[in-house]
Amino acid sequence: MKIKQIIALISLFILTVSCSNEVKNLSDLQSNFYELQHNGLRLGDSLNVYFFKNQELVDSVELTWNGKSVSNHMVMDNANTNLGVNELKIKVHLGSEFITGETHVPILNSTKETSISYDVINEYPHPKELFTQGFFYHDDKVYESSGHYGKSKIVTYHLGTTNFLQETKQEAKVFSEGISILNGKLFLLTYKERKVLVYDAQTFELKEEIALPNMVKEGWGMTTNGKELIVSDGTQNVFFFNEKFELQRKIQIAGYQSVYTYINELEFVNGKLFANVWTTNFILVIDPKTGAVEQFYDLTDLSESKGSDDVLNGIAVKGNQLLVTGKNWEKIYELPLPN
């Protein structure tokens, strides 16, 4: 009898070790863990990680969300997650052994963004030579930066004319990007040169250069909320800096269906962030606290684009109206702001 019991125990041990040896990765547990990066979640959804095979071998599971320990089936909200791409890690304990995994999960908004209907209020001439990068309206003048190596410059002109009031050119090795004024200084992003040029806003005299922080992939769009400089880098990320370019915070831009990449030209309007999606005819209206896209303009009917370069890329606010234009466009269009 004792011999039979010993044999049974040995058989059970061998079976357990054999089963444990079969689990080398999450695929052996038939987990949905890696599917989360493709399916994504919305605010209000639960984070659910399942195992459909060899569940009996799993002793415990550890999950971390953006570096913080979380429980399985956690409900996503603005307190515990960010819109956009989030890091998810897992550690599955199997007796004395464990397996790990890492993925990135998109979190989308729970509310659909709505289209803004509009009629064109007015049309103005736009200097067609300008490869529009930055664009805003200030002190009854249009400020505009124009890109391309060897052709980059900042100009001002009165709306309705194409004669430059001021013009300052950048070095041939500089590709100018977004511009904004804060505290009497005119800030200019550069595309790949990893620096921000700072001018006197009145005289256009170059005062200093600031290194572009490493977390910013490239210089693209820029605006201000009156306290901070808000910067895009061609990804879904939007950064908020003080005037010394010290990071204050970051958001990611996400709607109901997708995370929006190629965020480009920016404008801060009545507490909302307006952003153009590069190579598209869309301007997004965004909650600057969360990155949630709430509304959008579809400007397809206004587009002067005939190729991949001459695309929509200028957003400015003039009183209660919006001004929009594009790279090498002939016109500036005046539109109503959303209600």
Automatic annotation (TrEMBL):
Signal peptide: 1-20
This protein's record includes keyword Ribosomal protein: no
InterPro entries reported in the protein's UniProt record: QCT, Quino_amine_DH_bsu, WD40/YVTN_repeat-like_dom_sf
Alphabetized PROSITE patterns for the sequence: PROKAR_LIPOPROTEIN (PS51257)
Cross-referenced Gene3D superfamilies: YVTN repeat-like/Quinoprotein amine dehydrogenase
Entry keyword set: Signal, Transferase
GO molecular function terms listed in the Swiss-Prot or TrEMBL record: glutaminyl-peptide cyclotransferase activity
One Pfam family matching this protein: Glu_cyclase_2
Protein name per the record: Glutaminyl-peptide cyclotransferase
